Sequence to fold (247 residues):
Amino acid sequence: MADNAPTPLDRLYQLQEVLLEIRTKSEKRARTPDHLVHVEAAFQDALLRHNEGTARLKSAEDRRTVLADEIADLAESLKKFQSQQKAVKTNKEYGALLNEIDTVKKEIRTREDEILSLEEVAIEARKESESHDDSFPAEAAGYEEQMTEWRAEQAALTEEVDAGERKAAELRKHIDRKLLSVFDRIAKSRAGIAVARVSMVGSQTAACSACNVRLRPQLLSDLRLSKDTIHCESCKRILYWDARLEV
Ligand SMILES: [Zn+2]
Fold:
């Protein structure tokens, strides 16, 4: 019988359990439960429509501001050309000036037309946005109400994950750094499972519980006696012989 003080591998195995639990809980927290998926989708849809309406209105208003500024500049040019009319000496110059004036007037008119059509767009968008704004708070409230229970569950999961992380940090303090770095490297490539329990599959036969490959008898006896870390010859995970299971 072994004494009760935890071995480095006991601690490492415990660390792995804690880390796996953190992972499971984090994944659960990030996943909307099945019964709320449609609620979430409907809400996201309403939110999208709401934002789209607002964005459309804003872009119409921005464009209108740009056009109004351009019209103001063009009006300045027009005034300048018109004042030059009196100073013109030749018919040719006069014709050229009239052309300029014509062009500027056309430019102004194009922009004024665009402003008119933008106003129609804005009226439509505002109407739509108002009807969304009427229903949106109710949609948002309904969503929040249905999500309340889940939010509480998420908050509880966050607490558990935080507690797990504190525990993991504490365990790491008591594990050899070299062993930890081997553990972390294998865990990264093996979905978090770097330490595999050895399970007896016959009276004298043991197997790696992660890949189910049987251990050579020599390896099993090394594992029972040695203080070194022994890896599964097949999956390379750290083998964990839980002495407490030995009777
Ligand atoms: Zn293995």
Q: What stands out?
A: The chain is about 70% helix and 5% strand.
